[in-house]
Amino acid sequence: MDPDMLKTILVKECFTYFTNRRNFRLNGELYDAVNIAEDDHWRRLRNILSPNFTSGRIKEMFSIMKHHSHKLTTCLHSKAHNKEVITMKDFFGAYSIDVMASCAFSVDMDSTSNPSSPLITNASKLFRFPILLYIFQACFPIFLPVLELLGFSFFSRSATTFFKGLVEKVRAERNGSSHQVRDILQNMINTQAANGPEHEKQIKGLTDHEIISQATMLLFAGYETSATTLVLLAYSLARNPEVMKRLQVEIDSTFPNKGPVQYEALMQMEYLDSVVSECLRLYPPAARLERVAKETVKVNRITIPKNMLVIIPIYALHHDPELWPEPEEFKPDRFSKQNKQNINQYTYLPFGFGPRNCIGMRFALVMLKLALVEVLQNYSFSVCEETEIPLTMDPEGLVGPKNPIKLKLVTRSVECN
Ligand code: HEM
Predict the structure, then answer these.
(1) Which of 87, 150, 227, 249 is 20 to 30 A from 31 in CA distance terms?
(2) Which residue of 30, 351, 353, 399 sits with most ligand 1 atoms within 8 Å of its CB, as the best mutation to test the pocket?
(3) 384 assigned ligand-binding residue
(4) Where are the transmembrane segments (predicted)?
């Protein structure tokens, strides 16, 4: 059988029959978060959270995102003017966490002006997986229950305690206020009204603990992935100035004279979409997906027994030269309107696939595109002596650069428009 066909069938079957991710356990306080829960528990959480990520809701959150993208471009002004070398993550990380915290809890921590904000330090801590613990549990799964009893967890205890405290503080402030807030936290709190005998047939509302876990997990899942993608977008554009120029031409014709970015027009920008898609192909933040077989299944001639863990290697698929000629090259035209139709959907998986795909995909794309467009309306990215070429990728955790990406910004003159 053609190897491409086989790859497609295997990946497709995984999304058809295997609905659960592998639950590593050792999730500490986050044991009941949506990305960790299984079966009916996961279904209930996903059903409750999904309405927060419809196009309509994201459109409502667009003005909050714009507030932060505007702050981002303003903060970059002096850096560009003084021709400073910029560590891109300081700015894009702050933007991502501020957008996430504002949309989830209506809390504006203003991390863009305050890079040592506790939100950033704690969100980054959540991502530092203890690698020795990871290796130990993988080699000796028999010790998992003991490790769990001893309180070992992949997620930093101090960071989960920080987020728990933050959610509780916001809730307490709301209890005494008559002001109606409409954010993700409030939508979760409102589900509690559905608890009680008269609503037994409806979806059971979230418990207090579940609310804290979902809020923490959304920040965790959304912050690092989006911040790293923005940094790698800046890096890819700085290294490919002809692509950046073409994108700026599209931006300037869509929003003439550095005009305000409008949601509908942003979503219709074709080259912007190709640039973002290509960056997520080259640097998919999640290197692999995992599924567990619910039943024993035969895929082609391979038998996958019940409960077996199956890994879908996103990074390897995205870098396979048979699927993507010259895979290490940054070529947004792979995703042009004509070429897009020929892409096999099981070979391009930055946000996963199937019922357990990324719940925040649309939200993330809007947040990324908005920041990129506003920054490129005003500045161009430029490599400098401090820029690492080629990049060393971090062998641990998410796909991302090992060392901070440093670039310079060049202010665009008004005549550019
Ligand atoms: C560039 C940005 C992002 C990328 C590349 C990304 C990627 C992914 C991937 C690969 C998965 C696993 C999907 C699967 O197993 O099929 C996932 C799951 C998830 N993502 Fe994202 N993500 C991003 C941003 C976000 C944002 C902004 C949020 C929240 C607002 C978010 C929330 C989640 C959640 C809650 C899950 C678990 C879903 C479930 O188990 O039902 N992600 N993401």
Answers:
(1) 227
(2) 351
(3) no
(4) 131-155
pLDDT score of 382 more than 60 = yes
- Domain-by-domain residue ranges, the chain? 3-411
| Structure tokens that stand for 62 in this block | 């667009």
Q: Please, what is the average pLDDT of the chain?
A: 88
Each residue's pLDDT tens digit, 319-365: 999 999 999 999 999 999 999 999 999 999 999 999 999 999 999 99
User: Residue 290 phi/psi, 5° resolution?
Assistant: -130, 140
Q: Where are the alpha helices (DSSP H) in 240-343?
A: 241-254, 263-267, 270-282, 314-318, 337-340
Look up the CATH number of domain 3-411.
1.10.630.10
Nearest of 96, 142, 147, 144 to residue 117 by alpha carbon: 96
DSSP string, 82-131: TT--EEHHHHHHHHHHHHHHHHHH-----TTT-TT-HHHHHHHHHH---H
pLDDT at 109: 81
Contact by Cβ (8 Å): 122, 166 = no
Q: Is the CB of 357 under 6 A from ligand 1?
A: yes
Model pLDDT, residue 78: 94
What whole-number distance in Å separates Cα of residue 115 and Cα of residue 125?
15
Bridge partners (DSSP) of residue 407 are 86
Minimal-distance CA residue to ligand 1 atom 25: 222
**What pTM was computed for the model?**
0.90
Consecutive H or E run containing 220? helix 208-239
Q: What pLDDT shows up at residue 21?
A: 57
- Angle formed at CA 192 by CA 187 and CA 195, multiple of 5 degrees: 145
